[in-house]
Every structure is written in C-alpha cells, then in structure tokens.
C-alpha cells in the first residue's frame, strides 16, 4: 500500500471536457474585462507574459488558452477568473464518481493525498472545494503546481517527494499523460497511467487501483 497518492486532475480525477469546454471558455471570455478591473493583481502576470513573448499580453494569453499552453502565468490568471465562476455557481468542479469515492476511501485508510496539476494551486483548491461531490479539500494534505517544476521532468517529482517527506517509492502517482508517468517513474515513484476514454492505460477508473 502506498503511503501517499499524488494525483493529476485533468483526464484523471476530472474530465478533459470540463476543463476544455467549461473552464477554458469561461476564462477566455472574461480575460480582458478581468485584467481591466484588476490592474494591481494582474500587472505582474502581464509583465511575466510579455517577458516570455513580447507584444500584447492579453492577446498572448488568449492564444495560449486556445493552444492549451500550460504556462504558469496563464494558469495563475485562469485561477483568479475561475474563482468568480465558482462563487457565482456558474459551474461546479467536475470529478468522476469513482475518483471521489476512492479519494475518500484512501483518506480513511490513512493514505496521504496530494495533487500535482498544471492548474494553479488556487485553481486546484477551487475545483475540489466546489466539486460535484462537495468540498473534498479536507481529504488533501497538499497541492503542487508548475511552480514546483514541469510535470514532464523527473526533478519535479523528486522535489515533491522531498516536500512530502517520503521516499519516492512510497508515493503512487496517477495521471493520464504518458510523459508525466515516465518522469515520475524516472524519479522512483510508483505510477499508473489512466485512460478513461479508451481503457488503454494501466487503469481505466480509480476502482481498478489495488492499494
Ligand atoms: C486545476 S483545474 C484546471 C486544470 C488546468 O488548467 C490544467 O491545465 C489541468 O492540467 P493537468 O495537469 O491537471 O492535466
Ligand atoms: Mg492530466
């Protein structure tokens, strides 16, 4: 039995469609107005974007949403905009029923639960705090985003293991992305590839995980 489970969100606990068809369009439509209404808190984000790509940062951010870029400043800004959506109850955070049940079961069994997603830590807390299955944040011991490092690099998983305070092979990582699974395994974590749509990964649902 692992001592900790580290999970990805999009494609793993939650559907790709929810992120692509609900969250991204919500942020895209509100991005220019949000930036205009919150100059103080968005100025550092826009400066970071302009340093990466010279030009109009709002146009760059809009294009990055269309390209599904996992850039940290975009993810930070998206999280700020989604906070309005959750507060206004425009949507709830999608979570597969099997994932919610397994997270509760693992938590009750004493397995520490962590998240590693490209979505910002603030966005992760919003999704699980306003999920279809209610507030799941009490189940989690910690959250990691790309401020820790890219999800496709082994060093990020070594940093997470060190932050959690466990030996790498005591942690089970779950993700829908083969490159993330490979990076986690390179760092010594156990890892399972989930493929919810085609069942072609190591597992198709969280019910298939033998802890
Ligand atoms: C935290 S909810 C928003 C999800 C998101 O923006 C994203 O890029 C998800 O990527 P993941 O690393 O969870 O596959
Ligand atoms: Mg994913």
TrEMBL record:
NCBIfam families associated with the record: enolase-ppase, HAD-SF-IA-v1
Function of the molecule: Bifunctional enzyme that catalyzes the enolization of 2,3-diketo-5-methylthiopentyl-1-phosphate (DK-MTP-1-P) into the intermediate 2-hydroxy-3-keto-5-methylthiopentenyl-1-phosphate (HK-MTPenyl-1-P), which is then dephosphorylated to form the acireductone 1,2-dihydroxy-3-keto-5-methylthiopentene (DHK-MTPene).
Reactions mediated catalytically: 5-methylsulfanyl-2,3-dioxopentyl phosphate + H2O = 1,2-dihydroxy-5-(methylsulfanyl)pent-1-en-3-one + phosphate
Gene3D superfamilies according to UniProt: 1.10.720.60, HAD superfamily/HAD-like
Key word Transmembrane present: no
Gene for this chain: mtnC
Family: Belongs to the HAD-like hydrolase superfamily. MasA/MtnC family.
Cofactor notes: Binds 1 Mg(2+) ion per subunit.
Protein's name in the database: Enolase-phosphatase E1
Pathway given in the UniProt record: Amino-acid biosynthesis; L-methionine biosynthesis via salvage pathway; L-methionine from S-methyl-5-thio-alpha-D-ribose 1-phosphate: step 4/6; Amino-acid biosynthesis; L-methionine biosynthesis via salvage pathway; L-methionine from S-methyl-5-thio-alpha-D-ribose 1-phosphate: step 3/6
């Amino acid at each position: 039995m692992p001592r900790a489970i580290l999970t990805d969100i999009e494609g793993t606990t939650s559907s790709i469609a929810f992120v692509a068809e609900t969250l991204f369009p919500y942020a895209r439509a509100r991005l220019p107005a949000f930036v205009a209404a919150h100059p103080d808190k968005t100025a550092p984000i826009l400066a970071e974007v302009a340093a990466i790509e010279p030009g109009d940062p709002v146009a760059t951010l809009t294009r990055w949403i269309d390209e599904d870029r996992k850039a940290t400043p975009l993810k930070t800004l998206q999280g700020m905009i989604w906070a309005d959506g959750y507060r206004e109850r425009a949507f709830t955070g999608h979570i597969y029923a099997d994932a919610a049940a397994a997270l509760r079961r693992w938590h009750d069994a004493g397995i520490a639960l962590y998240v590693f997603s490209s979505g910002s830590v603030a966005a992760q807390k919003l999704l699980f705090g306003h999920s279809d299955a209610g507030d799941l944040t009490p189940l989690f011991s910690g959250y990691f985003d790309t401020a820790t490092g890219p999800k496709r690099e082994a060093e990020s998983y070594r940093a997470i293991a060190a932050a959690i305070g466990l030996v790498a092979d005591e942690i089970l990582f779950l993700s829908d992305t083969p490159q993330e699974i490979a990076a986690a395994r390179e760092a010594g974590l156990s890892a399972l590839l989930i493929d919810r749509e085609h069942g072609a990964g190591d597992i198709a649902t969280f019910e298939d995980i033998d802890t």
